[in-house]
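Final report, Chapter 2: Outcomes

The project's central promise was a pipeline that accepts a single protein chain and returns its three-dimensional structure in a standardized token representation, suitable for archiving and comparison. That pipeline is now operational. To close this chapter, we reproduce one record exactly as it appears in the project archive, with the input sequence first and the structure output second.
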Amino acid sequence: MVLKIKRYPFYVGITTLIVVIVMILTGLFMFISHSASQTAAWEVADRLFTEISAKTLGPYESALKAVAVLAGAVGRMPDLAAARAGAGPAHPGMDLMMGALAYFDYVFSTYFGYPDGSFIEIIAVRDQLPLRLSFNAPPGTYYVLRTIAADVRGTRVQRWYYFNRERSAIGERSEPDPAYDPRRRPWYTRARQAAGVIYTEPYVFSSTQAPGITCGRKLADGGGVFGVDITLERFAASLKRQQVSANGLMLLLDRAGRIILDPRTGPIQANAQGELDFMRLTDAHDPLVRAVATASRNHPDRILDHTHQVRVGKTAYFTRATELEADLGFGQVLVAVAPVTDFTGHIRRMQNRVFWSTGLVLLLVLPLSLLVSYKISGNLMLLEKESRKIQQRDFSESPPFDSAIKEIHSLIQAFFLMKRTIRRLLDQKRKLFDDFTKLIAGAIDAKSPYTGGHCARVPRLAEMLAAAVCREKEGVFADFDMPTEDERWEFEVAAWLHDCGKVTTPEYVVDKATKLETIYNRIHEVRMRFEVLLRDAELATYRQRLAGDSDEAALMTELEQRRKQIADDFAFVAACNIGGEFMADEKIRRLEQIAAQTWVRRLDDRLGISQDEAALKGQTPAPDLPVTEQLLADKPEHIIPRANPEALADNPHGFKLRVPENQYNLGELYNLGIRKGTLSAEDRFKINEHIMQTIIMLNKLEYPDYLARVPEFAGAHHETMLGTGYPRGLKKEEMSVPARIMAIADIFEALTAADRPYKKAKTLSQALRIMGFMRDDQHIDADLFDIFLKRGIYRQYADRYLAPEQIDTVDIRQYLAKPVS
């Protein structure tokens, strides 16, 4: 049965689709924006309230903490506990109190109250007229000093001293029999009973009728109480400056239901007893404040640290309360309040604009879509064809086509721009990867001054040889070629990264120029022991001379012989450290004889050392000092165990390299007895391990298809043709031609390099002779080595990279595997 599908003209389908999509998207947007407007407004309000609350409370809490630190420090000063208020300006705390007032602009006054009822206070008037009038202070008064103390007759007298900004006295007055007794004040009684710093509840300062807080601390040895009055006026001004929203506000409340700060009106009023106090929330005239109070009382968990919605009449408000740090013990909360419309008005206006804009767009789109649909069919087919080419990674140029319709024209232009951009991005990506490989190689070369340039020269030599092999039209390599740019780049990347594992090889191993060298040359430690032997011999001789029981001439002759013997022994040890020639058995025996000599160590060698070194030395108990030790020794702390031997023993990469038991063996005899060169078996493995790390690192990368063989090319340049190489023990038939090319390039560069600490650079003839032996021993590919010689690759490289004195006359016939035809 054939299904009958009613088919419509293309332009009708396009037009209908456009109209339907526009209407659906508009309706969906309207629905989502309407339903999400409250959520969005809630999130914006919550974030804004949180930020402003933190910004506002931070300075307030910091000020309280800073004053607490001041009070705590003063409370522990014994001199201040012993002082008395009657000293007046000579009181030892004057400079401290004035300094605190000068530093903390929110501090109103600092004072001491003593057990005998005496009192001394400094008030920061700061030449403000209302405060000067309150204290009958003359113009220019910056500080007012108030003291209450008994005179010689035992009568309590209150004295006032006035100081300018420079703390110079500018006036004073006195009053008899003051009624003020600090011992009856809450700050005094609470501080005397508390072990640390206390804060009072906010109250109204009687002198200024402004809100504030007192911080107090008991003085040392029961010497009274130190107090600091903190004014809240600056915090009130900060609340007033905060722009919560167009119609928002911030209030400071406490758990007792009082309004501590309201930036719109002063919350201070007279209570039933006629005393000034803070207004109760329930007494507030503003219904919004009462609603916040109700929400705070009925839903404390919702409003505290959460944005909550309350309603006053027909208006909805967002509100959020943030509590002061619990350690301060105030129980105060900062409340932010703002109308919901402050956050949703712009969303509603946007919805209206979208609705009317959509209608207008529909009126314009309907006729235009009918016209455009006639024109786009052919161009769309062409674009589809271009897209299939891109899928096949074909970014070649195509015959241009265009459309008279602007939108389709833009689409075509954008498509071709995208095509060119993708091609450019791929080129840039390739260049970035190429530059990164060179960066890695350069970093490895820069890591050691003795191998600088190796990672940069090997790729050049490998590319020269690979190009020559590709040109071969006969013989075993007649079918080998790297025809595409991707194949050539794959080989180049492998060449640049062939030694990337050297980033894991410690520099002091790669650069080990002497046998005792680690991070530094330990021959200096050994030399100092010989110096000790020399000093001990001289001291022994001089003691015998002083004793007078031996022939002085014989003693000096014996000393001179001993000096010569010590110098000869050290010269021999130093020569062994160089590692320049083969260590015969008789040299090993003499080294052991010298090592058997002893010296006396009188200082603890476990002081001033690192944790790792201490752990190694901790394997054996510390001997009692002084201790007699061998001149040269292999100690337990010289053995550094391998951290994770199982990681190399059972690996997924097929490594077959024999792993030494220890990571390092730094034993002095062990290293000085190295038969040839400067490297121990552990050092040699650490250096050889770089190729294992190269393979591990490169196998972790996810390559595109055209770079998939990079790990194989880069990781086999230390293998041989008969399976005796490392790290996998591969044979010739298991290695690709590029991998075998890499081996020849790496060996020739190493032989001719002039920047190695352990050998002199070879001349051309010397390097080729050695490689000829390696060819005969099947260490390198014989056919590739023949091409290396016949095509003059060695000479091209030498002219570019070798010093003139290295380039000598070479007759390649003696190095070829077979005669030149």
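Archive annotation: Residues 366-447 form one domain.
This record, like all others produced under the grant, will remain available to the consortium after the project formally closes.
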